[in-house]
Amino acid sequence: MHDSIALLEVEGLVASIEGLDSMLKTADVRLVHTEKRLGGRLVTLIIAGSVSSVTAAVNRGKVAAEKFGHVYGIEIIPSPHEEILKFFDMSK
After folding, report:
1. Domain enclosing residue 56, as ranges
2. What angle do CA 41, 44, 50 make, to 5 degrees?
3. Potential cystine with 23: which of 7, 44, 61, 66 (Cβ 3.0-4.6 Å)?
4. What is the helix (H) or strand (E) element at residue 9, kind and residue range?
5. Is 40 a member of any domain?
6. pTM beyond 0.85, yes or no
7. What CA–CA distance (Å, rounded) separates 24 from 66?
8. C-alpha distance from residue 60 to each of 41, 66, 86, 87, 90 (Å)
9. What contacts 24+ positions apart, CB below 8 Å, involve 74-77?
């Protein structure tokens, strides 16, 4: 079971790569899922780790991604339900 997950939704591939790079360098988190919509113009990144790690990482990723594109949102889900993990193909 994952302690928590966080989502970062951004406009554009470059912004998503910059945000992901910052998130992975900021804290002990790992990328568990990506989703691209509208031909890659809308990218959602999902990371997992401890609550404090994903919080720090997603906030830093948001700041980094804003330099290259619009950030549509971030969300932190502590202790996600098992059904949520299935939605992101993260089931055990």
Report:
1. 4-87
2. 160
3. 61
4. strand 4-11
5. yes
6. yes
7. 16
8. 21, 10, 26, 25, 23
9. 74/6, 74/7, 74/8, 74/9, 75/6, 75/7, 76/4, 76/5, 76/6, 76/51, 77/4, 77/5, 77/6, 77/7
How many domains are contained in the chain? Answer: 1
- Tell which wins on pLDDT, 1 or 31: 31
Residue 67: CATH number of its domain: 3.30.70.1710
Which amino acid appears at position 20 of this protein?
L
For 4, the token pair is 């928590």
Whole-angstrom Cα distance, residue 9 to residue 75? Answer: 9
Residue carrying the six token digits 């549509």: 72
Looking at every residue in the chain, the average pLDDT score rounds to 90
Q: Which residues of 49-69 are buried (b: 16+ CB within 10 A; e: fewer)?
A: beeebbbbbbbbbbebbeebb
